[in-house]
């Protein structure tokens, strides 16, 4: 990855993509990085008759023209949003999910809308966003309808390798945003009946052990980020539930792509998916190093 790799924003003409541009432009200025805006155009469909070839070529031409317009409008929006941003743009050819996955190898962050123009009505998370959040080679920020400019950064902590990488990203984001960092750790994982049958002493022990585990996971970052205030949230609820609640007052949630409880072979875990669907603020998904 280049030393000054850009923040890349994918656009498709949707309003959520416009919000992705706004988030990416501000982030690029904060991080002193260039902003690169891309729009992906699928290659022409295979055709076997002259008439079909003509239709396919016309559709491809129209699709490219639309993408070029979307990129130019997004560049203007970025310049209007963040003074001093250095912005470039291009149209890339390929299926959007695969094209964005490829460009992520050369990006500092990849920013996408939660659901674009091609999304199915009623779905909260689009297929392209899901794919790049799981497969990208850089942290992916998924942006929806709201762009809060105040509130803490929330990070989920479960002791997994991707969680460790998420913690590092969360501290860096909290420092650059001058925000409090709220670290969430769950000691759930047993049935509701078992939870209510447990005595107060057992629950206190579980809570204390979780607090100790969380403290160990966060140890050392204070030296690198001495100005970041850290709050601990220990919960017996499913982590996605508590993180989603906290997202209502947060300006960013940071999650590992797959946690300790994730199934081998699944690149985007259930907690990350749940948070992406319902969070009220942008969500950064961090893939393990």
From TrEMBL:
Transmembrane segments: none annotated. Residues 6-143, 152-286 form the UspA domain. It holds the Pfam family Usp. PANTHER family: ADENINE NUCLEOTIDE ALPHA HYDROLASES-LIKE SUPERFAMILY PROTEIN, USPA DOMAIN-CONTAINING PROTEIN. Belongs to the universal stress protein A family. This is UspA domain protein. It comes from Gordonia bronchialis (strain ATCC 25592 / DSM 43247 / BCRC 13721 / JCM 3198 / KCTC 3076 / NBRC 16047 / NCTC 10667) (Rhodococcus bronchialis). The lineage of its organism: Bacteria, Bacillati, Actinomycetota, Actinomycetes, Mycobacteriales.
